[in-house]
Automatic annotation (TrEMBL):
This is Uncharacterized conserved protein, contains Mth938-like domain. CDD domains: Mth938-like.
């Protein structure tokens, strides 16, 4: 599966070069919509609003919890609270969850990736970069 074949998966974790206009740029590609970045690659994420962030919508991240120390959740243009059941479930697996606006999540994700840290990101797409 690859991104260009429309499968919504790029098989390598990648820094994010840009965000805004409803999507992200990474690995010389453009993606419309929300995105999950994991050690196993980049995946389309069918979440458009913080209210849609659930354990079910984060199941791909939970499945990779053994490979991740930190999960950054980009909640859109503003910070939104993450339900305690999500935080508790990831804490039980040894994963720290940080929820911030998408722009802050992208910047922190890139720094942690550059430091070779075990980081994941679940990012709601935004229209305007901040």
């Amino acid at each position: 599966m690859d991104w260009e074949a429309g499968q919504g998966h790029y098989p390598y974790q990648s820094a994010i070069d840009a965000y805004g206009n409803g999507g992200f740029r990474f690995a010389d590609m453009s993606h419309k919509g929300s995105l999950i970045g994991l050690p196993s690659g980049m995946y389309a994420w069918d979440v458009n609003d913080p209210a849609d962030i659930t354990l079910a919508s984060l199941s791909r991240v939970m499945d990779a919890a053994d490979e991740v120390d930190v999960l950054l959740i980009g909640t859109g243009p503003d910070i939104a609270a993450i339900p305690s059941d999500i935080r508790d479930a990831f804490r039980e697996r040894g994963v720290i969850v940080e929820a911030v606006a998408t722009g802050s999540a992208v910047r922190t994700y890139n720094v942690l990736m550059n430091e070779k840290r075990a980081v994941a990101a679940a990012l709601i797409a935004v229209e305007k970069a901040r």
